[in-house]
Amino acid sequence: MDLKELLFSQVTDAHKTSKQLSVIPIVGVCGSGKTTLARLVYDDREATNQFKVRAWVKVEGHELKLLHAAHGILKSALGISCSIDDVDELDEIVRDTLHYERCLIVFDGIESMSKDSWSHMVKHWFDFVGSGSVVLITTSRSDVANLVGNHTPFELPQLSEYAALSMYRHLAYDSLEKDVTTTFMAKNVAALCGGDSLSLRLFGSCMRYHSKLRELVSSVDFSDVMRLPAPDASAVILMCVWALPRHLRHCFALCSIFPKGYPLNTQKIIRMSIAHLDCYHYFSDIDDSCIDQLISMSFFTDVTYNDCGEVVDFRMPDLIHTTAEDVARIVLELKLGRIYSIGDDAATLSFVGNCESEDVETLILAPTIYLGGVLDCSLAQFLDLHSLDLSCSGIRMLSEDICALEELRYLNLSYTLIEMLPDSITDLSELRTLDLSWCYHLKALPERLRNLTQMRHLDLYRCESLSHLPSGIGYFENLTSMPLLVLGNDSDCACLGDLQRLNKLRGRLEIRNLENARGTSDAKSAELRFKNLDHLGLSWSWSSSSQSMGDEYDWFEVLEELEPNERLKVLDLTGYMGSKFPRWISFMYNLIKISISDCGCEKLPALGQLPRLEELQLKGMRYIKRIGPEIYGDRDGEHDVTFPSLKKLGLYDLPMLFEWSDYDLRHSSLLFPRLETLTVEGCPQLRYMPYYPNTLLHLTVCNSSGGILQSLTRFGVLCSVLIKDMEIDVPLTYLTSLCNVQKLVLFNIKDELTIRLLAEFPNLVHLGILHCHQLRSIRFFISPSLEKLHISDCPNLSLIGVTSYSISSHLKELVVEDCPLVTQVENMSSCLSLRKLIIKGCSEFKIDHGELNDLKKLEYLLISGCPNLERRLRKDTSLISRIPCVILGDRKVSPHV
């Protein structure tokens, strides 16, 4: 039995017992595979089926803190990013997420934790989980395991000599290369790495890429020369760093300025590395590939990627981070510093570093520090500064004497509250990177910005308040990234012609206010075909386009001249009011995603033959009346499939759309053969959808004609259906054709409804009826497959009648919320498998003694906003004495007392 099977057996054994919560620590040295093992268990199909709520929380820094744990659980389990920092409010949300579900929670990478924090989590979160829940914790520290664990720690052993050598060989040689490992080399591997996984991964990977390291291992007896009493991972890391080229070595060492355990942003590391190497006039070819190389050699782990497959961020194992600190300080003599405290007047900074303040070259703000307000002249003490990172500091203004930092190459002010930059910033003649991304309040840039001729990265991503860029951007001939260009209507504003000389531009580019383009010649001079862009956004402002644009403005010609390079992967078009689309859109064969919004064309471009297109969004196209052959494109012998790769299709706010033809295809499976998710929202005249092959899994119909539901008879394998904000003018019996649907949600159905039957849904697992204000009654038989029934905010609902279709009914959860006229659930006692019952905001609700006695499997009962019922249950605890978890109001009660 392998390690994964051993651990999984412990997890499933916990699941099978009556124990409410098992906390299993996975203990092992850095790089031993703790995270990988936990991930194998977490992603296992059986675990997915057994645990209704799963959450993976990666610990930032060494200590697991309460807020981070709560936010991590909500983000992983629900897919929501939560900014709430009130502990009581967070406790309630987390409790509602976990309450009496069988949960699997993973806290990955805890090296420190306070007893108070853990006790709080247990008392306010984990005491409310369902029986058989499991918390997995990965750590290298036994004291953490002893603090949190109520289960024998799962300790990872080191690899055997045979397994270690096999791992090394697998990493050191690719499939086409001959394995030349000699007995002498194997002896060296054993002496240096032993059975340590981290050392073996790093050593083997670096051997593949660096011949001088292989030559060294082939000729020097390390067991004799180094006289190591035992294998030493630090020595291995140093050897691998020694083998790196100079620019990779600096890039690696620079990562040590950030605290252990924190995610490292690829662009930030690359740009800071460039700034440092430029200071010493080193030849440098640093770019994103440097991070890819270090990842391939196992220096970095926990890598996350964007939709285009590019590395967004990564982490550095603690032991490697320690070595990086030594390399930065001793070998490369990098002068690094970190601000760790701020004076009360915000004019004095304290920092920790490996040199005096006047010698610091790279300075960042510690992640826990928030400046706020104005950063005064305290930076003047760092006269040799080359890189300055004040991101997320909350500052609103930068002091004019920033110009004193004459050697500054890199300045990061992202995620701050800055509205204006000081004019003196244009005196920083050596500045290569100015990062202002996510500065929502930034209104304008200095007029003399053109003076910064060394600029390579001008990051204005999500600067939503920026009115325009100043003229002269074209002087930045070395510019490689500029995610946003905002055009102005004056001569001192940037124009499309400024892009002409920026042929090194790559990555993402969004051009706003294209109504200010100075004619077709201006668009042509942008020469976008010569820019290696992955993502292009082109937008016109509606307010301007309807007022200030004259007849001489040719929409079509402008867009036609903005043809990008054929390598483009993502295209966003917004506010285009031309009568037709240019042909080049139909020949961007590398496009993965297209979004067309608020455009005035009556016909759509031919997109059906784009071979790699996976996502298409059409929004606010108010003149589109039909979808048909024009979008599908011409088929020939080589292209007999329409939208061959499309997985996600969204139609939003198309008020005139009345026809959607399924094209004249001999075989309907050739249309959308891979479509998985379809959203139709705001299409009030559309009453018909074409047939799709048996790949469509998720359907949302919102604020559209009820007649469209008649098309549901053509969908056979849908897993989830959401019907929202609808006036349903056809019988609900059309829904019964969805015989395979597993999740059905009716949200804000505007008609007066009476729902009578559910037995026709043999595979339905989850039914939600939410915010249906005209709903009067619900009476139905429950199909054997139904497990969760949720009814919420139906103020006119007075009757809920539930009858099990058979004695094999599996209804486990019943929730009734904010239905003030509902006094009972008729025949609730027939739901013999019910485990969770929640009644909230139903002031006159009643449950008789017999009903509770019949629900013998009930394990969780929550009653809130039902004052009479709450008083009765508090007074007569015999009614709830056998239920393991009971919450009345907002407090957990002990029914045995």
Summarize the structure.
The chain is α/β, with parallel strands linked by helices and 897 residues long. It is 24% helix and 21% strand. The strands form 7 sheets. It has an 18-stranded mixed β-sheet, with helices on one face. A 7-stranded mixed β-sheet has the order 10-9-11-13-15-16-17, with helices on one face. Strands 2-3-4-1-5 form a 5-stranded parallel β-sheet, with helices on both faces.
Report on this model:
The chain has 897 residues and is α/β, with parallel strands linked by helices. The chain is 24% helix and 21% strand. The strands form seven sheets. The protein has an 18-stranded mixed β-sheet, with helices on one face. The chain has a seven-stranded mixed β-sheet with strand order 10-9-11-13-15-16-17, covered by helices on one side. Helix 18 (519-525) links the parallel strand 19 and strand 20. Helix 8 (161-172) crosses helix 9 (183-193). The longest helix has 14 residues, at 3-16. The radius of gyration is 31 Å and the shape is globular. The chain starts with a helix and ends with a strand. Residues 342-348 and 665-669 have low confidence and may be disordered.
Q: What order do the helices and strands come in, and which of them pair?
A:
Blueprint lengths: L2 H14 L4 E7 L6 H10 L1 H6 L2 E6 L7 H13 L8 H12 L4 E6 L6 H10 L8 E7 L2 H7 L5 E2 L5 H12 L10 H11 L3 H13 L1 H9 L2 H4 L7 H10 L3 H9 L9 E2 H14 L8 H9 L4 E5 L5 E5 L2 H14 L4 E7 L6 E5 L8 E4 L7 E3 L11 E3 L5 E4 L11 E3 L20 E3 L21 E3 L24 E3 L19 E7 L6 H7 L6 E8 L2 H4 L9 H7 L8 E5 L18 E5 L17 E5 L6 E2 L1 H4 L15 E5 L6 E2 L16 E5 L16 E5 L17 E7 L16 E7 L3 E3 L10 E5 L4 E8 L5 E5 L6 E6 L8 E5 L7 E2 L9 E5 L8 H6 L5 E5 L2 H9 L9 E4 L2 E3 L4
Parallel strand pairs: 1-4, 1-5, 2-3, 3-4, 9-11, 11-13, 12-14, 13-15, 15-16, 16-17, 18-19, 19-20, 20-21, 21-22, 22-23, 23-25, 24-26, 25-27, 27-28, 28-29, 29-30, 30-32, 31-33, 32-34, 33-35, 34-36, 35-37, 36-38, 38-39, 39-40
Antiparallel strand pairs: 6-8, 7-8, 9-10, 40-41
Helix pairs in contact: 1-2, 4-5, 8-9, 8-10, 10-11, 10-13, 13-17, 14-15, 14-17, 18-20
